[in-house]
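The following block was generated as part of the benchmark described in Methods. Ligand: flavin-adenine dinucleotide.
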Amino acid sequence: MIFQKYQIASIRKIGENTNAYRLKPLQKKIAFSAGEFIMLHILDKNTSQVKRSYSVASSPDNDEIELCIKLVDGELTSRLAKLHEGEVVGIHKGGGHFTYNGEKKCGFIAGGTGIAPIMGMLRTIAGRKIQGKFVFFCSARTKSSILYEKELKELQKENPGIKVIQTLTREKWTGESGRVDAEMIKRHVGNPSEFSWWICGPLAMIKSMREHLASLGTDPKKIKMEGWG
Ligand SMILES: Cc1cc2nc3c(=O)[nH]c(=O)nc-3n(C[C@H](O)[C@H](O)[C@H](O)COP(=O)(O)OP(=O)(O)OC[C@H]3O[C@@H](n4cnc5c(N)ncnc54)[C@H](O)[C@@H]3O)c2cc1C
């Protein structure tokens, strides 16, 4: 498989066992659309075959690619955890249908590292100064497991059309608590059937979110889903 070499420019802890990796192209930059995933290869001699899919958390308008990866001690992540800034990984184009294509009324729902492609889309929307209504329901278990908290505040400042609703499923706090459901969606969005939707996270979660949206009259054709874990 032909891949492009990228250098790890920075590794930043952004949550429990979760890092944001900034990767700088050493050869040709890979072209992709906001929301797509790439294939990441670990290039150590014995493990050149280890590759996994990762959604891109940065805008395609940047040269660098950011990935948001939970270290689960699996085949790839255990090797990734040993890499340092300056080391080189391989990337080849993945793709996927989970893309943002300039829609102006958008609802996003993510749990855990499902936030990655949504960050890519929101960063694209803010960077391109797209006017519209963009509502993001972001679910985490506890306050300490919230990902990209600071960046989401900045995105809301940069683009007043972006509204983030953070909910915690295992802790009470001043914000929303409990899983995202039909009532929460209706309260923040009004009529969700007017929106296009992107849902990303664990498989059970995306299925249940699709049911909530359907119960509120959303056409399934307006819902895109991506799941893992
Ligand atoms: C389209 C797509 C996009 C993806 N984007 C991302 C992303 O942005 N960020 C990200 O972190 N992952 C993402 N993944 C998951 C990723 O591809 C790997 O499956 C994951 O990193 C585990 O790989 P591994 O080789 O370390 O574990 P493996 O060796 O493949 O699995 C080891 C064990 O870990 C368990 N496991 C795997 N993932 C998780 C998890 N998230 N939480 C708990 N246990 C787990 C498995 O069930 C298994 O038992 C994506 C997957 C797909 C299909």
